[in-house]
Amino acid sequence: MTARNHVIAIGNALVDVITTAPPEFLSDRGIAKGSMRLIPADEAETLYAAMGPGREISGGSAANTVAGMAALGARPAFVGRVADDQLGRVFAHDIRAAGVAYATAASAGGDPTGRCLIVVTPDGERTMNTYLGACQELSEADLDADSVAAAEILYLEGYLWDPPAPRAAMRKAIEVARANSRKVAFTLSDVFCVEGHRADFQDLLRSHVDLVFGNENEVRALYQTASIDEAMAELAKHSCIAVVTRSSEGAVVLENGNRHVVPGEKVDRVVDSTGAGDMFAGGFMAGLVEGRSLPDCARIGCITAAEVISHYGARPEADLKALVKAKLR
Question: pTM of the predicted model, to two decimals?
């Protein structure tokens, strides 16, 4: 079967609302700076009303990843649920305009489109307050098995593992991908996701996933150790390719007993760290579908992550193809 898309991703379809504020904006409300937390609808309304002027940009972890891939010339598709409301229409327009195939039907009723309220402090740290809304209504009925079977890589977002219906949809997608000899990639997403689903995530790495992404904190949480070396030693026991991102230090790729250490890209100033991991994964997989070596894939990931943290928002603003061509020699 010929792959119609390089990657098909399943994840939260969110609209990011980004504003800048001093640390006191967070501490006065009992919000830990740098955290990612889920909030109910009423808190989402209250916090949104208190936020200063901001930017509304289509987001969601896996959606950001495939938008980055499209900017690099890959052919990605995305599966995620929005509502038939203003933010839902914003999301659908933006992701299609980015070059990503998107055909998930919007919900006619139920919860409104999800949104992530992001507060960026002067040090570039982002604090994410997420109301999932319609995202949680994604189900197996939203899957097009033929599209999953035809894509070279199925990419799954750990953030969406919590609600039962989307989790069932992702498990079904894994079955379809496996039955058609397609690769399965998974991102750990966040420490709170790992802590809530540690056994499931470890099982996925043992027998269902070919490629996994995680940062140092997520990998340490996965194996309940303070030592990143111990955590990576455990991670290396799995047969899948594992990529551990290390912020400004770059990334480590673990594969069949080999360890590839790739340095990070220098950034003059970190403006907003939102989407760095998402864009790294997009750059890495874009390199992978081009047939590049694993170290080169990680280099592309570092280049694209550096671009996205140099401005506000989790989507690229520079010409990523030109940027990678100039830096990857």
Answer: 0.90
Tell me which amino acid residue 39 is. I
- Class at the top of the CATH hierarchy for domain 7-13+61-103+136-327: alpha beta
SS (H, E, C) the chain: CCCCCCEEEECCCEEEEEEECCHHHHHCCCCCCCCEEECCHHHHHHHHHHCCCCEEEEECHHHHHHHHHHHCCCCEEEECCCECCHHHHHHHHHHHHCCCEECCCCECCCCCCEEEEEEECCCCCEEEEEECHHHHHCCHHHCCHHHHHHCCEEEEEHHHHCCHHHHHHHHHHHHHHHHCCCEEEEECCCHHHHHHCHHHHHHHHHHCCCEEEEEHHHHHHHHCCCCHHHHHHHHCCCCCEEEEECHHHCEEEEECCEEEEECCCCCCCCCCCCCHHHHHHHHHHHHHHCCCCHHHHHHHHHHHHHHHCCCCCCCCCCCHHHHHHHHCC
Q: Tell me the C-alpha to C-alpha distance, in Å, between residue 28 and each of 21, 71, 116, 172, 251.
A: 12, 39, 20, 43, 35
pLDDT one digit per residue (tens) for the chain, 329 residues: 445 899 999 999 999 888 999 999 999 999 999 888 889 989 998 998 899 988 888 889 999 999 999 999 999 999 999 999 988 999 999 999 999 999 999 998 889 999 999 999 999 888 989 999 999 999 999 999 999 999 999 999 999 998 999 999 999 999 999 999 999 999 999 999 999 999 999 999 998 999 999 999 999 999 999 999 999 999 999 989 999 999 889 999 999 989 999 999 988 888 877 789 999 999 999 999 999 999 999 999 999 999 998 887 778 888 899 989 988 87
